[in-house]
Write a structure and sequence with these properties.
mainly beta, Neuraminidase, 34 strands
Length: about 425
């Protein structure tokens, strides 16, 4: 009896250990999903609009608003609102403006401001709660097809970029929402630059890095919104460039990477250096050499008073990065993310040139990356990558990435054959 008794006890102990360790009878982990960074939930349904490219998206409170874009090269002017908490869509009422792409779309309280587009000085404001529109006054400027800077500062909207002549002539305007009135910005002392983030410091708009097309090397300026005047920045210790990783940390502007631009051939001259500009002192300091290859279109984030730089492209797509500490002028490498296929590094032709097809978000300590060839989470504190569980939607690129609380919202996108209007939500474990 005793040998049989102890044998049974041994089996029970082994089974308990196997369950706790997540080991099945085949010797494989059965609790693998519990070790992942979070869980997925598919949106209840696709958006109640036709699939399209170049659509505008913005997060307003707990609402994801999508509008505009083009269907088979034809601009459209409809849209829809997704309630994240209720997991439901609602089609927007008809807009009083024509269809367009490459337009400004900004959140303003519980409203959405839509303005511009290629050579279009008109816009409208959408009230989400009332499902109504109000036309904006005609702007004194028009901007070209290139993506341009736009942002909200108090009750004012700033738009700035390349004029319709496409000769890098800088054009900008300030819209007062309360007064429904525009003023034209004073002429800038630098050339225009596309895809520049809306960096505001107090009442100032900061811009640096216009492409070099034979003008003086100085390429930065600060615009005083209240005075409607510009002031040139001191000369930087790095070459002027476009498509850099740029971020504002307090009164410091950090620039790293990029290429001369604005044409594809300039990507061969991508840079691997960077510099820090003190806005108040009007002084520059060159950064220590980064442990990264030269690239353009890398992304930049602020984390624990440090700068996180990740991704980018040159002759291939990059899935690595580094963390920069300003106080010590030191770098810490982020290893390459786990890839689903070696094809992840290959450049492809569909979509817009220069656009990084692996947009990511930073939630707390987690850098989240989801695309056709990579779905992983990097813990910046633990210095560790972890693959996400399989998403309930097909792989894609050029998709919308929205951060909401502890959730990563993926919507839309395309691959080489399809354009999508569905999405999913990835929730980080608390």
């Amino acid at each position: 009896m005793k040998p049989k008794f102890w044998f049974i006890v041994f089996i029970i102990v082994v089974l308990i250990w196997a369950v706790q360790a997540g080991i099945g009878f085949a010797g494989q982990k059965t609790a693998q999903k519990e070790t992942q960074a979070g869980s997925w939930q598919k949106m209840a349904e696709a958006a109640p609009i036709q699939v399209r490219s170049l659509i505008g998206t913005v997060l307003v409170g707990n609402k994801l608003v999508v509008w505009g874009g083009e269907i088979k090269d034809n601009p459209v002017s409809d849209g829809a609102v997704y309630d994240i908490d209720r997991d439901s869509w609602k089609k927007m009422s008809k807009a009083p403006i024509e269809g367009r792409e490459h337009f400004t779309m900004l959140a303003y309280g519980k409203k959405v401001i839509i303005w511009g587009g290629e050579n279009t000085p008109y816009g409208a404001i959408y009230d989400i709660d009332k499902d109504t529109w109000a036309k904006m006054a005609e702007a004194p400027i028009t901007l070209g097809a290139e993506p341009y800077t736009s942002g909200v500062l108090g009750n004012k909207v700033l738009v700035w970029g390349i004029g319709k002549t496409r000769e890098l002539n800088p054009v900008g305007g300030i819209y007062d929402v309360a007064q429904n009135a525009w003023i034209k910005m004073a002429e800038a002392p630098i050339q225009a630059i596309d895809d520049w983030p809306p960096f505001f410091n107090k009442n100032r708009f900061i811009i640096w890095g216009a492409p070099n097309v034979g003008k003086p090397e100085n390429c930065g300026a600060i615009y005083d919104i209240d005075k409607n005047s510009w002031k040139e920045m001191s000369k930087a210790p790095i070459k002027r460039r476009n498509w850099s990783a740029s971020i504002l940390l307090g009164n410091k502007l950090i620039i790293w990477g990029g290429c001369p631009g604005p044409v594809e051939a300039d990507s061969r001259e991508s840079q691997s250096d960077g510099a820090i500009y003190d806005i108040d002192k009007n002084t520059w300091k060159k950064m220590a050499d980064a442990p990264l290859e030269a690239r353009f279109f890398p992304r930049a984030f602020v984390w624990n008073n440090k700068v996180v730089i990740w991704g980018g492209m040159k002759d291939k797509f990059y899935y690595d990065g580094a963390i920069y500490t300003i106080e010590t002028d030191t770098w810490e490498k982020i290893t390459e993310a786990p890839l689903k296929s070696e094809h992840a590094r290959e450049l492809y032709s569909y979509g817009l040139f220069g656009y990084n097809p692996t947009p990511q978000g930073l939630l707390g300590n987690k850098l989240l990356v989801w695309s056709m060839y990579c779905s992983a989470s990097y813990d910046l504190g633990k210095k560790k990558w972890e693959e996400m569980t399989e998403a309930p939607i097909s792989g894609r690129d050029y998709h919308t990435v929205i951060l909401y609380g502890n959730k990563l919202i993926i919507w839309g996108g395309r691959d080489d054959k399809n354009v999508y209007a569905d999405g999913a939500i990835y929730e980080i474990s608390k």
